[in-house]
User: What shape does this take?
Amino acid sequence: MLRVIGNEDTMAKLQFVDFGGMVRTVEAAVGSTAMEAAIKNGIPGIEAECGGACACATCHVYVDDAWQTAVGAPTAMEEDMLDFAYDVRPNSRLSCQIKITDQLDGVILHTPERQA
Amino acid sequence: MTPTISTDALIVGAGPVGLFAVFELGLLDIKTHLVDILPKIGGQCAELYPEKPIYDIPGFPSVTGQGLIDNLLKQIEPFHPEFHLSEMVASVESIGSAEAPLFRVITDAGTVFETKTLVIAAGGGSFQPKKPPIPGIETYEEKSVFYAVRRMEDLRDRDVLIVGGGDSALDWTLNLQKVARRVTLMHRRDEFRAAPHSVEQMRALVAGDQMDLRIGQVTGLGGEGGRLSRAICRGNDGSEFEIVCDAMLPFFGLTMKLGPIADWGLALDENLVPVDTEKFETSTPGIFAIGDINTYPGKLKLILSGFHEGALAAQKVFRYINPDKRLTFQYTTSSSSLQKKLGVSGT
Assistant: This one.
């Protein structure tokens, strides 16, 4: 059996901008979610209470205007869950439902003042 | 006044770890009562991810949250645990000694237990209604802002604003519409997760001018001395408007909070309960903590860790309850006495 040595995942850069405007840049493996990258890197403002099951709305982010098309719109299930978030805007997403792709390298996500 | 329930072990939390503790205690002939704040059994598995597959339960390549709970319920059936649902343990008072612990435990529904041991399997704490972070909302809570309806009469002839789009929001809209002076339902979009039948009823009431539906979000509250007089709202087009109301009911789902456990006199470490790794006992002899709620060096918040912790805690619970009895370690595969308890016959 051939064993893959090391981590050969392709990485993408993600920028989290907090409520005060501070930018934190982290790396995320393609195929992982923005929420996972946030939790791994201790990004403040992302709680992810349910651990990524799209069941709590505590990983709410605002997608930067320039990236809205690339990131895309929430699914119906995610829309339902966004009802539990506070100050929902047209660019609101749950970061556990944003899958990182090559196209999202450099994506900018704004974290809200507070998760509800 | 309901009579005090005497028991050997009281488990706080009916999630997977609390349920498996029933099994481990049951094998040692210890009868259990369980208290859970949710109206249903299963904790986070049932509330947060009933349909999500879990891949790290030993022996189950994949099982859903609800599937795991159903299986655990089947597994503990022989031990007839008694459930006290929709109740939260409000207070724990030690009335025994370190050698012979005894606790008086009272729930928010007034149920009183006298238990020799207490097993906290409360996961992330208790599920409580989410409070929307509207500036100053605390000053109105209990007078004008309510997260649950205890008595409908309290809302009679009031102007009630209900916020949300799920079943709780729609059910209370339909119920309170009958007693309130006027009900306004506000939701951030003109689509509702609630049961289609309730949504239809709501739309019919709106069409008949018997209630109002507004699309938007509440951004501020106005009033005096905790008495609400209006909600300041923002529509999806950014426009600001006000809704006249003297009661508001936000329904934004549930979140987990440590809750009253913080007041039980236990040593805490950042909202977790430190335990030893031999007995999973807390700083108070006779009170144990298993599953996500506890912490110790190397702790992993996995369901399987909680199962292990429950098995070890059960051994010490047995020693408190039967100080003079010898505890013989037995396997369910071969012990005829264990098989008898499980209601299965050996081969």
Summary: Chain B is about 20% helix and 30% strand.
